[in-house]
Batch of 2 targets.
Target 1
Amino acid sequence: MGRAPCCEKGKVKKGPWSPDEDAILKSYVETHGIAGTWIALPTKAGLKRCGKSCRLRWLNYLRPNIKHGEFTEEEDNVIFNLFNQYGSRWSTIASQLPGRTDNDVKNHWNTKLKKKKKKLFLAAKTQSHLHSQSPLLHTQETDFTEIINHTPISCIAALDNSVDQFQIPTVSEPGAGSDSRDQWSSMEPWGCDFPADMICSMLF
DNA sequence: AACATCACCAACCGCCCGGAC
DNA sequence: AGTCCGGGCGGTTGGTGATGT
């Protein structure tokens, strides 16, 4: 007995928006604003779409001043810092990045930054095992979040090389897992001397 | 060239919260 | 005070182009 859906299934179009639909929505919102409710908007505008779908399309794509394209290193840094601070509160994070949407930030994190963070962690561990030079990295009490927080993104490329060069033997790469459905989060972490729950809680 | 796999991103789903009644 | 409804949000999925075999 869930709540009623916001629109009748079967009577609304789903899937990618056509240029025509975009034009109708854009024109309507620019002329009338979001007068009333999003639920009522598609009927008024003559769109066979769910109100929520219209809202999402407007906010993520049609709204003025939306920034598309590559994220800058500076933006990456902001996302890293805010993620460490707030976790996956994408709207909060996106609000600090003018022109970026929560969906954009979320996708960017899931496809790029999560992997970067993972590599950074592995690289930090590799360095500690090979060189045993950083007292920060020696004990179980080590706060790796600190390390990650204070490592510039620009260092990651170098650390990536370290990982590739040394081929950490205790790490088994996940199978062909792609995107957010990869298998890292479900597998036993790399049999190292740090508690699995600690590592997982930091990385995923 | 054909097929398989990967990576990315737009869009959907469903839950939660707050305002209106 | 309780219920309803819409907006907002985060998680997830499906489609598609790129890359590898």
Target 2
Amino acid sequence: MSVKTNKAKASATASISAVAEHAGVSIATVSRVLNGTKAVNADTRARVEAAVGALGYRANALARSLMRGETRLLLVLVPDFANPYFAEIVKGVESVTRENGYGLVIAEASQTLSRDSAALDSLYNRMADGVISLARFADLKPLLQEIPDLPWVACSEFVDDSDVPSVSIDHRQAAIDAVQYLLNRGHQRIALLSASEDYRWARQRHAGYEFALRRANIPIEPQLVRVARGTDYVHGMDAAGALLAMEQPPTAVFAVADTLAIGAIKAFRRVGRRVPEDVAVMGFDDIPVAQVFEPALTTIAQPVRELGAAAAQLLLKRLAGGASESLTLDHALIVRASA
Amino acid sequence: MSVKTNKAKASATASISAVAEHAGVSIATVSRVLNGTKAVNADTRARVEAAVGALGYRANALARSLMRGETRLLLVLVPDFANPYFAEIVKGVESVTRENGYGLVIAEASQTLSRDSAALDSLYNRMADGVISLARFADLKPLLQEIPDLPWVACSEFVDDSDVPSVSIDHRQAAIDAVQYLLNRGHQRIALLSASEDYRWARQRHAGYEFALRRANIPIEPQLVRVARGTDYVHGMDAAGALLAMEQPPTAVFAVADTLAIGAIKAFRRVGRRVPEDVAVMGFDDIPVAQVFEPALTTIAQPVRELGAAAAQLLLKRLAGGASESLTLDHALIVRASA
DNA sequence: CTGAAAGCGCTTACAG
DNA sequence: CTGAAAGCGCTTACAG
């Protein structure tokens, strides 16, 4: 029986040595029964398990991680907690990480995010085994250079000239589909309500919008393109206001996010314009409120849960030493009432 | 210059000994300039800083935390990522933790959450310095017993016979205010759309509803009380359906969550009932969509950001050794169009 | 001001 | 099957 140095370590959680002492074995043995890593004699095991129970012992994750070289924690970078779209993706991520025994560290990756963020700083330093980023491309880029050796996976966003794999739908094609739908319904003056093009997806949806129009021989009218200052409902209202002021307003609006679409509809309604009779409005994302809102939103549905789940799987696979290739999932056009 | 044992540690991040070697000092000195904990000679400091820069060194947070006895990580338990109400609270939490150099580990605390969750399991074991819980009281209770020595703070929920401080509005009083408002508008048949009473707040709002009715000498009609099977929009629709089937339906509905209220309105609309003309609907929370929805929601606003921020402050104060007393913040009745 | 050494709580070859 | 010991990468008395 070994001699313990610090016997009365206050009320603090029992350590492995306390368990060893209690069971009359070495800490190595305790470790073995805890991890099932090596055969242990039946009654030795029983004694250890009894000691664990008696002391309410739980291995200190910090020490364990330090030795194992992994924390089983994944960092998730989201641009905005409040956007339901991101929340759904996180749910997808969570579903697979939970199954695999990983925890999630979530940080809001705003523009201001940088090395001065002590929180993130601590994470970079081996607190997480890898990161899943939904952050704006513009925010992501500089971060990548700072923390080169952590495995990254981008979700919805991506970084072309890098080895960061990504999981996403084909934003450009989805936008083409949306605009084509509007064209098919006879619209010729179609406005684009875009989001900050710090988001790669915003840029790509914008490209899809222009492509679809050009393909239909409709000239791009710069005034019909409005960039919202955020993705909250109010930002959609504001941006739509500008459209309202035009002498020849659009007959249809393609918004790159449902939140923006809903904000726009609100703005239109306020001045007595009916949707879709006077203006058709298409959204993007198919967030939960899209179907209960009135008029219910015609929108592009992203397989959000799957997006998150796939990103998590990709990262886990990579952590397990596997190769990681990017993935493109399918989108779908959901026709409801707003367009 | 000391001899390094493991020289070619692959590409892995530089360790403190690598920095020490590079700068020609001991690791103790490196630690001191890193932490500014003790005076260091100016040019020694310069040499160390140069080495840190050259090697791109960042302290290993795991080892550091193990020594310091703190991780500067806080665990946030949310019942549902998808509910905008919780998202806003998390934003409040994040604003203060970020300022204080703390990171957030977020886990979804569903009913199924238990010791089999490897993710949470690792957290309990000293991965987080404390926890802020928005979890259902019913889920929270058993967890508390498992991890007794972590400092907890409950937000919106609470645990009466424990030393867990909480930050919340007065849910019961808020419900009384809501129902009284409805009564003042002449309603007599007021339904309650409640949420799972695993949530303490649901139970309290329910109590407030009954109190207000009784105070007005209106008998409680059990059929007018419906418990939704969740807090998503669809759950509100479902629960409202039952109300619709009544021979003498209510003239007003008080929903304990905006999501539920919106779902109910949708259900009413589907069968041609107008809100608020045929049925008035009141919500609770004032989530972002409440004001853009049509009809805009009359609701009880909770100071969500403040709630989250206060919970974080309370926890931080406690971690700093301070005392922790519970806090009740003010709610507000927002009159818009739905009631 | 600086270094050698102990120690945080674990895991894992290495012997036996 | 089991233990003594080294080591993960740090921080911090203890000497000097």
